[in-house]
Hints:
CATH architecture of the largest domain: 3-Layer(aba) Sandwich
CATH topology of the largest domain: Rossmann fold
Structural class: alpha/beta
Largest sheet: 8 strands, mixed
Strand order of the largest sheet: 1-8-7-6-5-2-3-4
Number of helices: 21
Amino acid sequence: xxxxxxxxxxxxxxxxxxxxxxxxxxxxxxxxxxxxxxxxxxxxxxxxxxxxxxxxxxxxxxxxxxxxxxxxxxxxxxxxxxxxxxxxxxxxxxxxxxxxxxxxxxxxxxxxxxxxxxxxxxxxxxxxxxxxxxxxxxxxxxxxxxxxxxxxxxxxxxxxxxxxxxxxxxxxxxxxxxxxxxxxxxxxxxxxxxxxxxxxxxxxxxxxxxxxxxxxxxxxxxxxxxxxxxxxxxxxxxxxxxxxxxxxxxxxxxxxxxxxxxxxxxxxxxxxxxxxxxxxxxxxxxxxxxxxxxxxxxxxxxxxxxxxxxxxxxxxxxxxxxxxxxxxxxxxxxxxxxxxxxxxxxxxxxxxxxxxxxxxxxxxxxxxxxxxxxxxxxxxxxxxxxxxxxxxxxxxxxxxxxxxxxxxxxxxxxxxxxxxxxxxxxxxxxxxxxxxxxxxxxxxxxxxxxxxxxxxxxxxxxxxxxxxxxxxxxxxxxxxxxxxxxxxxxxxxxxxxxx
Length: 499
């Protein structure tokens, strides 16, 4: 069962764990982050969190502050309108995203027959991470209706593919009348935010409407923590949330530092782990034929950000041009620009969509994946994986996805958004961190060209898979915590029986 955070004992453990780390063969320092401990049954007896169903901060001062906040958003919208119109002509779907966020096109939901729970993930990673909890909620309460929301277009698209039987809605813009209209149309009994999505007007309207809010899989980076410390006194945010189910003691301490009472913070582990399929994944005949190679090792660079695609292609040409390189950008809408930049550097990339239209696969050329939702199956083709967003100052992407398949995994120095996951893999030898492109060249040569390269990759993959498997169980603890504060209880003014 989940454990209530103790600021003294957990603080000491977090400080000790933060020193865990090391240096990889290429000189890359491991991130100074806590190595997550295996999830254990813990006692819920000390949980004193209650569902917040009213606005405890009501009053003229707060009304004026929120009116000013609305005015600031409107002013920013007017000033930024020319830029938005220019940008929307170049970024497909941007105008539709804004229209949806303002409440246009919000689907009508039918009458409620049971508890309606809104589960929100900002984008692809959070939406995918919610899978195990959504399944657990529906299994625990068959009459529950889970509505999925996301902010980005890719998040909406992935939500539609992962949750075909659930209503999918766009998370609203944080204007008071927009969030109020959204909640009136959706009529959730609870809102569950995946990781952290703090918007003052949305949280206030939830309190006013009697809709409790919980954060699950909670995490807060050091950078975000510092920003919240600056603004926390202007508009109450964290104290409007009923429960924080967080990934680790390190994150629990940061939330407590922001004024969250310890009795509302529980350490439940990383829910995303439970949503990963452990072990080999079947890529499918088509992807194997178009992107795989029977004669070459396959190197997959997943969730890349600009200008990593060019950097990785150059490193591949220097280090291991005899392998098959597959580039999977985090945002496929960039593929036209990526293809042009690769061509400028002398690379004739092949897009997956072109291969599907009949182009002849050429493993000697980099492959460029311009589709959504296929990364897991593409990782299945890999002998070696590099996780992007880490050679640039982005903070990394989910390093556990390839590790869960037992793939030897590398990443760059910037992993602040996934510091604990990276520390977990580094601590067991399941991954390597490189400082820069030169370090990546050296690591690739070692793991492909050395006499014992195959055994090194196998050992890394086995260690990574074991490490990920050790972290399972967070979903059950999270659901138990949510139920303890009334997840399935009737909403305000409702007489139905709870599950």
